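Collaborator request, handled under Task 6.
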Amino acid sequence: MPISSHSHSGQFCLHAQGTLEQVILEAIQQGFHTFSFTEHCPRKYAEDLYPEESHLTSDDLFHTFDEYIQTAKQLREKYADKIQILIGSETEYIRPDSIDLLRELVAKYDLDYLVGSVHHVNAIPIDFSVELWHKALEHVGGCYEKLFLDYFDHQYTLLTSLQPLVVAHFDLICLYANEEAMKVFTNSSEVWKLIERNIEYVNSYGGVFEINTSAFRKGWSVAYPKPQLIKLMQKHNSRFTLSDDSHGPHQVGLNYHRGKEYLEKEGIHALAVLSRNSKESPTTYQMVSVSQIWSNFVGKNGLSP
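Structure tokens returned to the collaborator:
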């Protein structure tokens, strides 16, 4: 009963591929039990548009999000007998008023849940390109520690304001970090105080951390989050779920065989499977053994993982 708690499609995300229906058909073909649509929330300021969106306006993003929700609901009904589909959104925390927008979206669209992500530090993207990551570094005077501290402070603001059920790629700030930066990340007691604070807060409200296999396709030898973070999360009895963070049908279930190996190596034996309840009840989850998660899973091109 494979699962993914975080995904995208080219229909509603310009750096992805394929339609939302193609994504869910691929998930069905691979034997997924639960699959979540979690397209990015819209951004309301023109300066927050990515280079790929230069031909768009912020209003276009809101229209696209509305179309996404309508399409997702149609697909959930169409394939209800084949797969459990949840409809959520991945957050964008860019500045403090991002929180107000996210609250409005949750209320307007009755989203099943939020995927809590931070893609910006001091309003500068940190995972879009290595050039922008370095721009964010320059903004804090070239101080690696300050960049990490600001990232985890932004994350804490997001967590305490919205309590997202799923916390995505917890250490995304490390994506483009070089060896020198990672030494600072590993050895800074101040950074790790914030990390531990954030982990404890997520646990306090019952959130789960995703094991995100997209890190493999981005050149990492491990998934998000890195082993040293997982060890701290385990120390605090954190719970985990699984995501492919796919950006199109070609990435559904991608590297799940490596994800399974990673879980086994890190001693994670159970994962949270999200469950959509009645309209009056919030989305919940049950813990399921890793071996059960991988049962009935058919990998890419019909090959077993």
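The cover message to the collaborator said: "The chain is about 40% helix and 15% strand. Residues 88 and 113 are 5 Å apart (CA to CA). Please let us know whether this matches your experimental observations."
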